[in-house]
């Protein structure tokens, strides 16, 4: 067998939506808990399960197996599936965060091992030695903060509020030193920090500027957290359904609200700078941040139309390749280079390879082994396809 229907675990993080996954995909929520993420992959923390006579975890099936991962994938990415694919449904903002690049992850992981910090310790930053670039594809309007705004947007946003505690630091920002400004902001403590946040919120309440309104909104979820000022520093973007953006290593970001597909390299390395009850490590965060700016209009990935009804969203990393397939427009077989996961976004499709076929309806997914070679898609609606680039 080369195509397997997946049963995917749900993560009930507190920022998750109670109803988005039920409304979009009919996934029952009897307990009424938030349903934050649906994981599709072979991550040992919460692997997908394969439905055969026995239930088998996907990592148990594929890790180290050339038949499933493919020779090229084993050589390039190691013993496990190189990506993790998710449905993410946020009802409230997630932590403000950055992810390390490969070298930083290698160094950080080795260093924390040397210090003897347990892998599952609350204060562990590096849980593995891999980078964690991410790509999100909006299923509903999806709001997020991603990357530093252009300088000529950033400093006027602070200046218009006349925040006295930031007067000196603002002069550094005007000269282009985002790093010095951000380090100063994140180092404020006690009364100094409280005074700044209080003054900022006073301005935010009266302001009709969207960035300042976002400050106000964040403060409702995380009152008094210095991270509520992030919308002044970062681009605030709303993806429309069908748009995608990339989040590279070292980019400060936070998801705010909405449902999306997310694909990332197989890693759990997150450095947080607030808006969370999880571990925050500002010095380590500052080591990984790239202090360059990006215009809002440059954030979305350009979709590239391929044959067979496929539209690719190409990012700068090889660990994953994300594309969307319009099933009606598939005319020939789709070629498999490495292990794949297909997720049905809408409609209904039958995925066929030789004798084996799996029927997909919205919210369901299947794993396709590298050895499958090629497969057919019959049906209508939209499939999301995740694989790696060899
Ligand atoms: Zn992230």
UniProtKB/TrEMBL annotation:
Family: Belongs to the mannose-6-phosphate isomerase type 1 family.
InterPro entries the UniProt entry points to: Man6P_Isoase-1, Mannose-6-P_Isomerase, MPI_cupin_dom, Pmannose_isomerase-type1_CS, PMI_typeI_cat, PMI_typeI_hel, RmlC-like_jellyroll, RmlC_Cupin_sf
Predominant place of localization: cytoplasm
Catalytic center residues: 272
Known role: Involved in the conversion of glucose to GDP-L-fucose, which can be converted to L-fucose, a capsular polysaccharide.
Binding annotation for Zn(2+): 97, 99, 134, 253
Localization terms from the record: Cytoplasm
GO molecular function: mannose-6-phosphate isomerase activity; zinc ion binding
Family matches, as NCBIfam families: manA
Cofactor note: Binds 1 zinc ion per subunit.
Keyword annotations: Cytoplasm, Isomerase, Metal-binding, Zinc
Domain Phosphomannose isomerase type I catalytic: 3-151
Organism: Endozoicomonas numazuensis
Cofactor: Zn(2+)
Annotated signal peptide: none
Top-level taxon in the UniProt lineage: Bacteria
EC number: 5.3.1.8
Lineage: Bacteria, Pseudomonadati, Pseudomonadota, Gammaproteobacteria, Oceanospirillales
GO biological process: carbohydrate metabolic process; GDP-mannose biosynthetic process
First-level EC class: isomerase
Domain Phosphomannose isomerase type I helical insertion per the UniProt entry, residue ranges: 179-234
Record field: catalytic activity: D-mannose 6-phosphate = D-fructose 6-phosphate
Name under which the protein is recorded: Mannose-6-phosphate isomerase
Residue span(s) of domain Mannose-6-phosphate isomerase cupin: 310-386
